[in-house]
Design goal:
It is a single chain. By secondary structure, the protein is mainly alpha-helical. Helix content is 55%, strand content 5%. It has 3 domains: 94 residues; 47 residues, no CATH class; 173 residues, no CATH class. The protein is built from 18 helices and 4 strands. The two termini are 21 Å apart. Bound molecules: iron/sulfur cluster (2 copies). One iron/sulfur cluster binds next to helix 4 and helix 5.
């Protein structure tokens, strides 16, 4: 059994080795149980072990192991919560990255169903889908906006494997980049920074209002904004489905484009935490090299960039908010925390 999260390690895709590692980690998690509330993966895992009198994780079948893997959606919360991560403990436990390894191993060893592969190949092409869907939004939203559990959604479930009860984000009538290119030019009096926005598929095709608000806030604070190349997906749908080859192809192209943006004097800002994490961490692991490091070191989550502006001597964030100000807000922060925790682990080794 090899404890590794390095996709280039010779044992990374070995089936027996990966399944032994799953057994080791499932056993540790079953004893710990701290993450029971984060997602379905952990309750499923505990239920498969609890049925045995001796609570032996080694008695889980491959199908049961796979059920736990399939329920992980890579939110990384368990990593943040875990006191046994590689930089903290000799158990060197990184649950989400083990799920990535297991998915890649299953794909490599012919254990992914044809439907699963076809769904990834089609649904993973979010740019192609987004371009078509935003140009015929009314039609696509008849499907995306169909009531969960409806006949339309059941047909989509049967064909594409997307749960009929899952809420799906509708497509926008117009893309974010179209709004960006057509908006009136702004005059910047006190320039404090220069960023290239990597809009992400969600903002580009489904929720452009997030990007529009981001631009307004940044420009109000003297941050010059441009678009990072042509709108492109970060590749996460492929990585999270075990298709490492396609992910790496997408990642290499993006790394080159983003590194050029940094060399042109821009910092990279990402409005979607999962995609920001992919740029900062996964490109380092799967592409590596000087350009990937340059991108990782100059990429920020949208709010992370503003907080840095606020804290940098000689720069300032306009805090004269008007209108109704909520007492509390929900801030999805754990991908940044995950990166910091992981980079901390690298610095320590
Ligand atoms: S990363 Fe996966 S296993 Fe961990 S909490 Fe998120 S969904 Fe659950
Ligand atoms: S991931 Fe870590 S904290 Fe979570 S259940 Fe497993 S051992 Fe416990």
């Amino acid at each position: 059994m090899t404890i590794t999260y390095d996709p280039n390690h010779p044992m990374y895709l070995d089936e027996a080795d990966t399944r032994h590692e799953l057994e080791r980690v499932y056993d540790l998690c079953h004893g710990c149980r701290l993450c029971f509330k984060f997602c379905p993966s952990f309750p499923t895992l505990f239920s498969y072990i609890d049925v045995h009198d001796d609570q032996d994780a080694g008695k889980m079948t491959p199908a049961q192991q796979d059920h736990v893997i399939d329920e992980c959606f890579q939110c990384k919360l368990c990593y943040i919560n875990c006191p046994y991560t590689p930089n903290q403990h000799e158990w060197a436990l990184d649950f989400p990255r083990l799920m990535l390894r297991a998915d890649a191993m299953r794909r490599e060893n012919g254990q992914m169903s044809v439907r699963n592969k076809v769904t990834t190949a089609v649904m993973g092409r979010t740019d192609a889908i987004g371009k078509v869907a935003t140009s015929m939004g009314v039609v696509t939203n008849l499907v995306m906006g169909a009531k969960p559990g409806s006949v339309v959604r059941k047909i989509v479930e049967k064909t594409a494997g997307i749960s009929s009860v899952r809420m799906l984000p509708p497509f926008a009538r117009s893309r974010f980049s179209t709004w960006f290119k057509n908006r009136p030019k702004t005059t910047m009096l006190n320039r404090q920074g220069k960023v290239a926005l990597f809009p992400t598929c969600l903002v580009e095709y489904q929720d452009p209002a997030i990007g529009q608000d981001l631009i307004k806030v940044y420009e109000r604070n003297g941050v010059e904004c441009s678009l990072a190349g042509e709108a492109a997906c970060c590749g996460a749908p492929f990585l999270h489905s075990g298709d490492v080859d396609t992910f790496t192809k997408v990642a290499k192209k993006n790394v080159k484009m983003l590194a050029d943006e940094v060399r042109a004097g821009n910092e990279i800002v990402v409005p979607q935490p999962t995609c920001g994490y992919v740029l900062k961490k996964d490109y380092l692991d799967y592409v590596g090299g000087a350009d990937a490091t340059l991108v990782a070191e100059n990429t920020y989550d949208a709010a992370e960039y503003l907080i840095r502006l606020h804290k940098t001597e000689g720069k300032s964030l306009d805090l004269n908010f008007t209108g109704e100000i909520p007492e509390t807000i929900t801030y999805h922060t754990h991908h940044v925390t995950y990166v910091l925790k992981t980079l901390g682990s690298r610095a320590a080794t």
